[in-house]
Design goal:
162 residues; alpha+beta
């Protein structure tokens, strides 16, 4: 039994619509991820001591790090968790482990999975910070003040005339 031309046209139209929908289902998420990786919510710098960098993940391996931020003396230290995508930056971070550094980062929001990193902070550069550029309150503990020299005893009052 032969199909009518109208039915064949409908079948071709349905295939075309199906292919368009399939293409959109593939292309739109790819465009979204590309846009989120290209656009930065914020950029900035954080300074502190590099404590950790590890290459981890089950399927998607990423470099994840930890920076101990400079805190006011007596305050609990704060940690800055970050992700590194560039292998050259990760290598430089490994070389400066334990040193005081300034990390340049971009914050990416809206990434759909942790395959791109465990954090939303992606480090794009690193600089070692010398002790000379550190604020005075972070350099070294202030030694106790020296005890002042004793003040001389007051001179005796002159004797009253008689």
């Amino acid at each position: 039994m032969r199909l009518s031309n109208g039915y064949q046209l409908q079948q071709g139209y349905a295939k075309r619509i199906g292919l368009i929908v399939l293409a959109l289902v593939i292309i739109l998420p790819v465009l979204y991820i590309w846009a989120m990786l290209s656009w930065s919510y914020s950029t900035g710098e954080r300074a502190g001591w590099l404590q950790k960098l590890s290459h981890k993940g089950v399927i998607c391996k990423t470099d994840e790090g930890e920076l101990s931020l400079i805190a006011v003396p007596g305050a609990a230290p704060e940690k800055f968790l970050f992700t590194v995508r560039d292998p050259e930056v990760a290598k430089k971070i490994q070389e400066l482990m334990g040193h005081r550094v300034s990390l340049h980062y971009e914050q990416k929001v809206g990434l759909p999975t942790s395959c791109f990193g465990d954090t939303s902070y992606f480090v794009t550069g690193i600089e070692e910070v010398s002790e000379a550029t550190m604020p005075s309150w972070t350099a070294t503990p202030v030694p106790p003040a020296a005890t002042p020299a004793p003040t001389p005893a007051p001179a005796p009052a002159p004797a009253a005339p008689q």
